[in-house]
Design brief:
This protein is mostly helical. It has one domain. The protein is built from 5 helices and 5 strands, in the order H-E-E-E-H-H-H-H-E-E. The protein has a 3-stranded antiparallel β-sheet with strand order 3-2-4. A two-stranded antiparallel ribbon has the order 1-5.
Length: 163
């Protein structure tokens, strides 16, 4: 049973950490441009255009520098996963095992919520950069939206397996 659980957690971890690239699409001069063409630098697809306007480019740099914090969520996520694995591997009594499970799950949940909150608040810098650019420059940059006027994320999922 423990081996099955460990394999399940490892498989889940592999699935979550698979190569994933989510990108939004901007319309510039009636052409679609990926805003985040690579997973390393967010907003890189708009750099060429936003460099023309100093204020817009500053907002873009702030957006990119704020989204580069990868260590904090990785460390906290590893701690939460370690607590859950310890609960299943250890020979602790039922009360301690439940405590480890609750601590690990709550650590993962809090980490997820904090990371998503920071990412969504960071998006304001990208929107301000596009707004500042559009005030003074041509061609205008428009974010691709759906029927309800919501920005479409254009999520792309890529999984690469190697054995």
């Amino acid at each position: 049973m423990k081996i099955f659980l460990i394999l399940f957690l490892l498989f889940t971890h592999v699935m979550v950490s698979a190569d994933e690239a989510c990108s939004r699409i901007a319309i510039i001069n009636q052409q679609e441009v990926l805003i985040d063409p690579s997973s390393t630098r967010k907003g890189e697809g708009l750099t060429y255009h936003l460099q023309k306007d100093q204020k817009a480019y500053e907002y873009l740099k702030k957006y990119q520098s704020s989204s580069e914090d990868k260590w904090r969520p990785a460390i906290i996520g590893s701690i939460g996963t370690g607590l859950i694995l310890t609960a299943f591997i250890s020979n602790a009594d039922d009360k301690n095992r439940k405590g480890l499970l609750i601590a690990g799950a709550s650590t993962l949940l809090v980490n997820f919520l904090i990371t998503k909150t920071i990412e969504s608040s960071n998006e304001q810098y990208l929107y301000k950069a596009i707004e500042e650019y559009n005030k003074r420059n041509l061609p205008k940059i428009f974010l691709k939206t759906d029927e309800q006027g919501q920005v479409t994320p254009g999520a792309y999922l890529e999984k690469s397996w190697s054995f």
